[in-house]
Amino acid sequence: MIRFICTKDYDDMSRKAANIIGAQIVAKPDSVLGLATGSTPIGAYARLVEGYEQGDLDFSRVTSVNLDEYRGLPHDNDQSYYYFMNYHLFSKVNIDVNNTYVPDGMIADADEACKKYDEIVKNTGGVDLQLLGMGHNGHIGFNEPSDVFVKGTNCVNLTQSTIDANARFFASKEDVPTQAYTMGIQTIMNAKKILVVVNGEGKADIVKKAFFGDITPQVPASILQLHPDVIVVGDEAAFSQIKDMI
């Protein structure tokens, strides 16, 4: 089942998304959170930090597993997703860094890296709430449009559109990694609850395709139609093509 929460703007989207994550932590202090990177969830993370600073949230028993990491980037690289998470959340709350997991982009053997991360996720006991952004082509994590839904953690060749979208974070387009390790679709779907955040008119078309179109690996996010508990929080611009359907 998919529930849609339409918000006024990015700030309102961020606040409502953070409220959902915060409620999960309050209800289950030892929650396992699946976390995402990219520009969309930054506002939600800032709100969660505020909740911690105000004494409303306690992250001390939380475990986190991140969706993905660039292949070939060490954790201390300022464009790595480990660095991103540490900068925006981990270093600002009382989470135990030993309980924060991001795929290791420096494991050269792709099969080994993927197997290791699948074991890590399995050993957490399962994700209670998975936060997702969504790419313009419908990718979730770095699961790009494909002929099949890949089950477990996998090494993906990033599409040119994804590389182009990420180029703004790097000194030049040539510096953008072309591969990444990412949780697979089955791993994402195994989460008890999924929270999707989307904003901006540029996401309006893919929001409609993902949640009201055919279920197809060519639009990876469309698989979420089969999950029993999905909340999509988006601003009016992102929901502009589905406002009469929700």
Mind sketching the topology for me?
Elements: E1 2-7, H1 10-27, E2 32-35, H2 42-53, E3 63-66, E4 68-70, H3 81-88, E5 100-101, H4 110-123, E6 129-132, E7 154-157, H5 160-166, E8 179-182, H6 185-189, E9 193-198, H7 204-212, E10 230-235
Parallel strand pairs: 1-10, 2-3, 2-6, 3-5, 6-9, 9-10
Antiparallel strand pairs: 4-8, 7-8
- Count of DSSP E strands? 10
**End-to-end separation:** 12 Å
Q: Structural class of the helix and strand makeup?
A: alpha/beta
CATH topology name, in short, is Rossmann fold
Do you know the CATH architecture? 3-Layer(aba) Sandwich
Major sheet characteristics: 7 strands, parallel
Name of the CATH first level: Alpha Beta
Low-confidence stretches are none
Which percent range describes the beta-strand content?
15-25%
- Number of helical stretches of at least 4 residues: 7
Q: What is the average of the pLDDT values?
A: 96
Reading the helices and strands in chain order gives EHEHEEHEHEEHEHEHE
Strand order of the largest sheet: 1-10-9-6-2-3-5
Structural features, described:
It is a single chain. Helix 1 (10-27) crosses helix 2. The strands form two sheets. The protein has a seven-stranded parallel β-sheet, with helices on one face. It has a three-stranded antiparallel β-sheet with strand order 4-8-7, covered by helices on one side. Strand 2 (32-35), helix 2 and strand 3 (63-66) form a beta-alpha-beta unit. It is α/β, with parallel strands linked by helices and 246 residues long. The mean pLDDT is 96. The chain contains seven helices and ten strands.
